[in-house]
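note to self — DONT lose this again. spent like an hour looking for the file last time. sequence + predicted structure for the chain T wanted, 184 res
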Amino acid sequence: MIRYLHHSTSLPKQLRGLLKAGKKGELAACKCEAIINDIKQYGCQCEAVFSKRTRNGEARIKNCIKYDLGGGYRLVTIKAANHLFICFVGTHDETNQWIAHHRYDDIVPGDPLYCCEERAAQADAEESNDCIHEKMCDIEDCYENELISRLDESQLKAIFQGLFINRTSASDKSERPSDTSATS
C-alpha cells in the first residue's frame, strides 16, 4: 500500500511542456494528472491506474512502472516500500533518455529532488472499502442462507434430477451383488 507520494520538483515544468506540445500533449497532461489523482485517491492497484500501465513495464530500473498516456507519451514512477516516486513525464524518447540517465540512481525518501505528500487519509478509505466488502459478503451469505432455508428436498430432487437418479441406481447396483452373495 502506498502511503507517501513523492513528486519530482521538475514535474510541473514537464506538465507545462506537455500542455504547450499541442493537442496530443494536452491530452497526455490531462491523463497524467488523472492517473496521479487516482493514485492519491485509490492507490496503484485500482483498475483505473493498473490498466494504464505499459505492456512490457520497465526492467532497467528496479520497481519502475511506466504508464502509457497515449500519443507517444509516458509517465514514470518508482515504488520503494510504501513510497511512490512520480519521476518523469514526457515523450517516449524523452522517457527512454531519462531512464538511461537515471538507471543507477538511488531514489530514497528524503531526496531533495522530490516533494513528499502523505496519503494517510486514503489508507483509511481503503480500509473502509475492505469493511464494505466484508459487509457485502455477510449480506450475500445471509441471502444465500435464506434461500437455502426455503428449499426442501423435493425441490432439490426436481432441480438435480439426474444426480439423484444416478446416485440411487448406483447404490442399488452395489447393494444387489451383496444381496445375491448373501443368499448364495
